[in-house]
Design brief:
Largest sheet of chain A: 6 strands, mixed
Structural class of chain B: mainly beta
Order of helices and strands of chain B: EEEEEEEEEEE
Helix content of chain B: under 10%
Order of helices and strands of chain A: EEEEEEEEEEEE
Radius of gyration of chain B: 13 Å
Strand content of chain B: over 45%
Helix content of chain A: under 10%
Shape of chain B: globular
Strand content of chain A: over 45%
Number of strands of chain B: 11
Largest interface: A-B, 26 and 26 residues
Distance between the termini of chain A: 41 Å
Shape of chain A: globular
Distance between the termini of chain B: 37 Å
Oligomer: heterodimer
Chain lengths: 112, 111
């Protein structure tokens, strides 16, 4: 069955530390990949997306992600986090018709 | 800017009640979706619709039904609410190759 795996369920780090969240998917065809973020009390927002082309994609708020086809991975990175990056992060794959399959999410807590 | 509006932010219902969750989008998107979000499970697709009066089951359709009589409106129906349907319900809209836009969610508690 197709799946999306996020490696960490909870991450705690200090401000200015670097962040990397892992995401692996199992799907053999052409994929569209997404990272969404949910800040406390807010709706899901798109951080970045990969459809084709340059495998290193840049999103909002200094986030970037790298698509590595051979590893079926789409890891999210930010060089220096801020307290305001405290949120839950979701990786997702487009299964067709715009349907997204989501990973279980990673709760990130940034301490001052 | 795309707006997806869910009619209620919080709902409390009793076991066995019929529950309607409403969602409206203002961007003329063909596709609309209902997900539920539970801690540790991420978002799971309940139903989706790619056109008026069309619906398809998602990954966890049991206990739910949907209605799409107009393009902008997609309703989720719990015919007989049960405690295991206590959850956050998220509506989304989009096109085939675009990111989804989500509503703020409805937190449903079934007692």
């Amino acid at each position: 069955a197709q799946s999306v795996s996020q490696h960490n369920h909870h991450v705690i780090l200090s401000e200015a530390a670097s962040l990397e969240l892992g995401c692996n998917y199992s799907y053999g065809g052409t994929v569209n990949l997404f990272w969404y973020v949910q800040y406390p009390g807010q709706h899901l927002q798109l951080l970045l997306k990969y459809f084709s082309g340059d495998p290193l994609v840049k999103g909002i708020k200094g986030f970037e992600a790298e698509f590595i086809k051979s590893k079926f991975s789409f890891n999210l990175r930010k060089p220096s986090v801020q307290w305001s990056d405290t949120a839950e992060y979701f990786c997702a794959v487009n299964k067709g018709w715009g349907k997204l399959q989501f990973g279980a999410g990673t709760q990130v807590v940034v301490t001052p | 800017d795309v707006k997806v509006t869910q009619s209620s932010r919080y709902l409390v219902k009793r076991t066995g009640e019929k529950v309607f969750l409403e969602c409206v989008q203002d961007m003329d998107h063909e596709n609309m979706f209902w997900y539920r979000q539970d801690p540790g499970l991420g978002l799971r697709l309940i139903y989706f619709s790619y056109d008026v009066k069309m619906k398809e089951k998602g990954d966890i359709p049991e206990g739910y039904s949907v209605s799409r009589e107009k393009k902008e409106r997609f309703s989720l129906i719990l015919e007989s609410a049960s405690t295991n349907q206590t959850s956050m319900y998220l509506c989304a809209s989009g096109t085939d190759n675009s990111p989804l836009h989500f509503g703020n969610g409805t937190r449903l508690t079934v007692t």
